[in-house]
Design goal:
The complex is a heterodimer.
Chain A (H helix, E strand, L loop, with lengths): L4 E4 L3 H11 L3 E4 L5 H7 L8 E4 L9 E4 L2 E5 L4 H5 L2 H6 L1 H9 L3 H6 L2 H6 L25 H4 L24 H7 L3 E4 L3 E3 L4 E4 L2 E3 L7 E7 L5 E8 L10 E10 L2 E10 L6 E2 L1 H7 L6 H11 L12 H15 L11
Parallel strand pairs in A: 1-3, 2-3
Antiparallel strand pairs in A: 4-5, 5-10, 6-7, 6-10, 8-9, 11-12, 12-13, 13-14
Chain B lengths: L5 E2 L6 E2 L2 H11 L11 E6 L2 E6 L6 H8 L18 E4 L2 E4 L12 E3 L1 H6 L3 H8 L9 H14 L5 H7 L10 H17 L1
Helix pairs in contact in B: 4-7
Classes of the chains: A alpha+beta, B alpha+beta.
Bound molecules: iron/sulfur cluster and FE2/S2 (inorganic) cluster (2 copies).
Chain lengths: 333, 191
């Protein structure tokens, strides 16, 4: 790796000040598992002048129940989240999502904030030495549109004229399904509004803004949640499709459904049609199947990725059934 | 020229001028030990304490392998995708190729050399069960298994597989690892 300045921040304020001082040419490092890969491969035209370590900020990894829910510090590791008794019981989808991310070692290193703020995996974008200066890097075109797009968006692009790279986070859909909020050094942003694609950007964070925590509201009585992931390998792999759902029932009937797919579109995607379809119905094979179909009804696959559509459809169905009274075994894992 | 904020090296207070900072130092930190400069780290590796000056861009792998000469951990992918560089940091298996050495101040590291020097039965069990062919991935598997057994002395076969799911072996020695780890688990918990 090319060298850079390094700072151990002692507070979020100090880290934000340092970020501001470098005006977009510095990066925050926590687990580092995404950032260091990008730097080693020199995938971006610009290389960070400085890294600001926030692992030295005390208390940022705390997980604590609050009056109205649960607060998870930015530095809480994926391993810690996946094994946390309260999260396993009440925010099951998030525990499952964190537990299916990457590999055991990476889960010991990677943090919740890093998993939300990670960059896209498009193979043109990630090619070493900035080989494809694509739209996302301010270049002239999207190489994936006409090229090999077998792992790209089935719901269209976002940047002008393309960028069909999918958002790869496993925890993001869980957070959105559970109605979570991302707390930053400046504001609170609903998890569903946190992701955004523009040139060289995957979140709404400003250059000197830092995620400090995520907050989950206490689930309404009768709520169950689940997460499922389809990947080519069982471990150390990014999702082809993942899905999280949080379903609230009164008796057997669904009163509220929140379903979120990820890795199928440029940002995590709420399956609004599927959510509406579930309202008032029981969680059974027929309803779940119809919801799966509704979730992908408006899919517009590219030349190479139509195969992802039935996977997304099936994953919605299975995730819903996993929220039911007698969940089936997770066949995807 | 723009005035740059000066941050106190002891606490996080910021100051506009060197004089203000000096006054603060005399008032609040007169008797404090001088904090080490960035890049100076203290850590324990295989039970031995080190105080080292490191560059920001050194990974923990470079530190233990290239600078401390502990060549057990192997660099395969250098991207966090294979587990062959696994070391144990504060009791947890982590990937040394994806950790900056400069951020390891105050940590306790155990490498496969430490596992062997302690006479851990995993080493013999790996030999006995031929849990390797070329052997390049083996130190990563051994350290991961050691951390598992420390944390969970009686894992099930499934738990062993999950714990080792971040370690790749191009030679396909996977079944032997479960056999070796479970045998060691029994041996260690029998007494
Ligand atoms: S999908 Fe996005 S990141 Fe990939 S080549 Fe196209 S513009 Fe670049
Ligand atoms: S060399 Fe570190 S994970 Fe492969
Ligand atoms: S023994 Fe050769 S890679 Fe595992």
């Amino acid at each position: 790796m090319k060298n850079f300045e390094h700072f151990n921040a002692r507070s979020i304020d100090e880290a934000a000040t340092l970020l501001g001082r470098y005006g977009g040419n510095a990066a925050v490092i926590a687990g580092g598992t995404d950032l260091l890969g990008k730097m080693k491969d020199r995938i971006l035209p610009a290389y960070p002048e400085a890294l600001i370590n926030i692992k030295t900020v005390p208390g940022l990894d705390a997980i604590a129940e609050t009056d109205d829910g649960l607060s998870i510090g930015a530095l809480a590791t994926l391993a810690g989240i996946s094994a946390h008794p309260v999260i396993l019981e009440k925010y099951t989808a998030l525990a499952q999502a964190a537990g299916r991310t990457a590999s055991p070692q990476l889960r010991n290193m990677g943090t919740i904030a890093g998993n939300l703020c990670q960059d896209i995996r498009c193979w043109y974008y990630r090619a070493a030495q900035n080989r494809f200066s694509c739209l996302r890097k301010g270049g002239g075109r999207c190489y994936a549109l006409k090229g090999d797009n077998r792992f790209h968006s089935i719901f269209g692009g976002s940047v002008k004229g393309g960028c069909v790279a999918v958002h790869p986070s496993d925890t993001a859909p869980a957070l959105i399904a559970l109605g979570g909020t991302v707390i930053t050094s400046r504001r609170a942003v609903k998890a569903s509004d946190f992701f955004k694609v523009s040139v060289n950007r995957t979140t709404v964070l400003e250059a000197d803004e830092i995620v400090t925590a995520v907050h989950l509201p206490a689930p309404a009585p009768g709520t169950r949640s689940a997460f499922m992931k389809f990947a080519l390998r069982q471990s150390i792999d990014f999702p082809i499709v993942n899905c999280a759902a949080a379903i609230t029932c009164e008796g057997d009937a669904v009163t509220r459904a929140r379903i979120c797919l990820n890795a199928v579109s440029v940002v995590p995607r709420r399956a609004a049609a599927a959510e509406q379809l579930m309202a008032g119905r029981n969680i059974d094979e027929t309803a779940a199947d119809a919801a799966g179909a509704a979730a992908v009804a408006d899919a517009e696959p590219l030349d190479g990725n139509a195969w992802m559509v039935p996977i997304a459809r099936t994953l919605v169905k299975r995730t819903l059934l996993a929220c039911g009274p007698d969940p089936a075994e997770d066949e995807s894992s | 020229m723009e005035t740059k904020d000066i941050t106190c090296p002891h606490c996080e207070k910021g100051f506009k001028s060197p004089d203000e900072m000096k006054a603060h130092m005399l008032a609040d930190h007169r008797n404090d030990e001088v904090p080490p400069p960035e890049g100076h780290i203290r850590l324990t590796v295989n039970g031995k304490a080190y105080a080292l000056d490191v560059q920001p861009n050194w990974t923990l792998y470079q530190l233990v392998h290239d600078h401390l000469g502990l060549t057990g951990a192997k660099q395969f992918c250098d991207r966090g995708a294979c587990g062959s560089c696994t070391v144990i940091m504060d009791g947890k298996p982590v990937l040394s190729c994806m950790i900056l050495a400069i951020e390891c101040d105050g940590t306790t590291i155990e490498t496969v050399e430490g596992v062997a020097a302690a006479g851990h039965p995993l080493i013999d069990a790996y030999v006995k069960h031929h849990a390797m062919q070329c052997g390049y991935c083996t130190p990563g598997f051994v350290t991961t298994s050691k951390a598992l057994l420390d944390d969970n002395p009686r894992p099930t076969a499934h738990e062993v597989k999950i714990a080792l799911s971040g370690n790749l072996c191009r030679c396909g020695t996977y079944p032997q690892h479960t056999i070796a780890v479970l045998e060691v688990s029994q041996k260690l918990t029998a007494s």
